[in-house]
Amino acid sequence: MSLFWRIFVMNAFVLVVAATLLLSPWVTISAPVLLDEVIVVTAGVLTMLAADACLFRYGLAPLKQLSRAMARVDLLNPGTRPKATGQLEMAELVHTFNAMLDRLESERATSSARVAAAQEAERRHLARELHDEVGQTLTAVLLQLKWLADRAPMELRGDLHAAQETTRESLDELRRIARRLRPGVLEDLGLASALRALTADFRTAGVTVRYQLDAGLAGLAPEAELVIYRVAQEALANAARYSHADCIDLELRHQMPGVVDLMVRDNGHGLRDAAEGSGIRGMRERALLIGARFVIETTPEGGTAVRLRVPTTAGAEQ
Fold this sequence. Notes:
This protein is 64% helix and 12% strand. By secondary structure, it is an alpha+beta fold. It has a five-stranded mixed beta sheet with strand order 1-2-3-5-4. α8 links the parallel β1 and β2. It is elongated.
């Protein structure tokens, strides 16, 4: 029986019972109306309303369950689906809702992949511009300052040498920014070397970055390696900027056959119920692109742990 006919039959039953009682010899209405009759009619109306409320609650319970399931849906955590239970119409509604979620998740994955590809292309373009244009200009300025310092009077050489050091530091920072925008070492030397270079970039005064990388991390597609690198980069940046940590650990290991685990853990102050920002959402979206599982949590010591579980092509073949 469909939801419409169930509710119709329930209401019809209540009305038929009420009409039967009014037509029966046990219920009479006088003119003028007596107090006892007012009490009986009022009690009857209240009973009808209570019965109607109970019947509606029972009839619409599957819709309430679906509503709760819809409120829990998060496209960044795909795979959760309400079960198609109940009557035929309700089951069809749940199937339609699940099909809509499948379509939305597929469209989001496609659009996220396009956005990620556009971002990487723009990063490469900016890195080339910084390295080829701005980097060469600063190098020329550095050489000119050296030439001037060698020929300037003694009282000006100190200032020129200071300008040289400032220019050299700016050039080094520019190169670090270019490496972060476009990890050429990832393409040339592989993921392990890229992560080692990345941890070196985040070592600052008072912050220790340690890494443990398994040898022979085979079976990772280039897209998966790029996602691992970007997630590690964002996690290290968050730990260095916001957690006030003095020690950060980065691990990349084969935890089980066909799976590679990335973990970035710090000893900072943790999440503290803070809302997820664009950085964390970006890591989640990148994880979805390669079918990886992303988790961020507070460690027992109070710090933050970012975990990324990536399936390898070897695991997929098995």
